[in-house]
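User: My collaborator sent over this chain with a note saying "see what the structure looks like." That's all I know about it. Can you take a look?
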Amino acid sequence: MGVRKVMGLLFRTCCLVAAMSAVAAPEQQVTVDLAGLQRNAQAGDRMAQYNLGVLCETGRHGVPMDKAEAVRWYRKSAEQGYENAQYNLGVLYLRGEGVEENREAALHWLGLAADQLNPAAISALEKLGVQKPDPDGE
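Assistant: Without extra context I'll predict from the sequence alone. Here is the result:
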């Protein structure tokens, strides 16, 4: 594994840990390098795009809540195959938050996330009465 790949994995892990810390322990102060996150998102990093979408959706860490902007960042990440972004984008389409409500688009994005065995997407599809094919073909 090359140094670039290891550094990328390390960065993604740090972003995930920071995001999880913010959710798991809201009383603790979490610092976000917003400029760096924006720079990486604009450079095409799907994890940075996803994380920026989360900040836009929730209005945390000094980022104004803007669901339409969240949709924009989630879509960029989702189009690169990141299942959490696909799930979040599907949910926003389902709710009509930041984008016009569109069940077909919601099912598309939730389906892509479920195809990657995203448990939240699988559960959402089941609640919507949509059966995904078994990935093992059974």
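A starting point for your reply to your collaborator: The mean pLDDT is 85.
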